[in-house]
Amino acid sequence: MQAPFVPSADVLSLLHLHPRDDVAVALRPIAAGEALSAGGRSVVAAEPVPHGHKIALTSIAAGTDVYKFGWPIGRTTMDIAPGAHVHTHNVETRLKGVQGYAYDPAEHQPLPSADAEFLGYRRADGRVGTRNEIWILPTVGCVGRTAERIAGIAAARHGGAVDGIHAFPHPHGCSQLGSDLESTRAVLAALACHPNAGGVLLVGLGCESNQLDDLVAAIPEALRSRVRTLRAQGVEDEVEHGLALIDELVSQASCAERHPAPLGELVLGLKCGGSDGFSGLTANPLVGRMADLVVGSGGSAILTEIPEIFGAEHLLMARARGTDVFDRVVALVNDFKCYFLESGQPVSENPSPGNLAGGITTLEEKSLGAVQKAGQSPVGDVLRYGERVRLRGLTLLEAPGNDAVSSTALAAAGATLILFTTGRGTPLGFPAPTVKIASNSELATRKPRWIDFDAGEVLTSGPDTAAAALLSRILALASGEPTASERNDEREIAIWKRGVTL
């Protein structure tokens, strides 16, 4: 389900996406009284319509489904006349609670492939990293600043020997119980296994719930040779002791060199944040093309943000490789809905204020645009939060929509490059190189220090030209060219907290 782009959109005012749709998207601000046409229909704007927002092409009766992308995005709360602005004042969500699903498999289409290569670091276990860095992971928030001090001194001491030395503090690891503690440990252990880390220093305090020995035990034995540990309570000067351990790791990691690797060695994390009315028209479908190309070349792509597929989950379920994967997708979606409902929250408590301002009306509309990041690839596996990618192909990963939490989960799962689409803009960066892809050219022009690629080219140059340009950019960034967030030293993690704090 990808939008039929119109290459000559720069001379158009409206974009009609599917013959079934009774709305079109404004490609520029529309003034009241303007005569317009889209989808073979003529209409006069009854009121101003902001760019990225929807205009009715026909009469839509109250209580009727509104269609965009060829699917319902909500239900009208009043009669809507042709030319009217269609948004939250006259449309509401159709989403409710947990529901049953039937497996109706779609026919899998052949995926494209490419002989393209990037320069990466091949690790002993066969995986290929896009960076060769030293990561410092604190077990607990109490030593977060200690980890940052060690990283700052070590980075100045070893500049150029590796691609970077970074600390990733967080506030968790103590006063946690049960599954909450297990999730914290699982995410940190998974990050310690990442192929972009040539060495890892685990910094513990000593008395925390997330004990250092238990964290090390969660790391596969074959990967522990590149891991060092420090208990701050057990040494006289924890910073000097940590620096000595970093010296060892740098000496070991600095021997690694970049070598050509096929496109299929990439693991793409698929993420959108601060979406607008163009995200589902330009950036997300363009990322979907990249996901299909990498998967078709033998690589991996990971889609997360489970609450942001509500209303479009049936499209992913139809692409499940067999009933077992289908059942696991259903369980993942309904478990997440129960998580909302048990907290007294509706499953449709989305979009955000920024999404609404950008023209997204309901969660269904947001989701139908968001799932396009996954292209047309079959869903081959489902991971729970904190698990690492197991199979090549498209994987669905449990995590919320929150940008920092979901992007951290993608990195922990093994994404070596995160393709992050945005219509509103954000400076955030995460452990894996985070490629910011603007859905509109205005954002790309206004925030060049944040944005790595302008997907607005889809509407001016066409999707094929934009896809070729994005692939070239991805290969350069995977080969070591810094992303905007790396240049800005934007690096962080966020761990999903769901349980009790003592």
From TrEMBL:
The protein, known as: Altronate dehydratase
One term of GO molecular function: lyase activity
Key word Cell wall biogenesis/degradation present: no
Residue span(s) of domain SAF: 21-92
SMART domains: SAF
The family this protein is said to belong to: Belongs to the UxaA family.
Keywords on record: Lyase
Highest taxon above the source species: Bacteria
Source organism: Pelagerythrobacter aerophilus
InterPro entries associated with the record: GD_AH_C, GD_AH_second, SAF, SAF_UxaA/GarD, UxaA_altronate/galactarate_dh
One GO term of the biological process aspect: D-galacturonate catabolic process
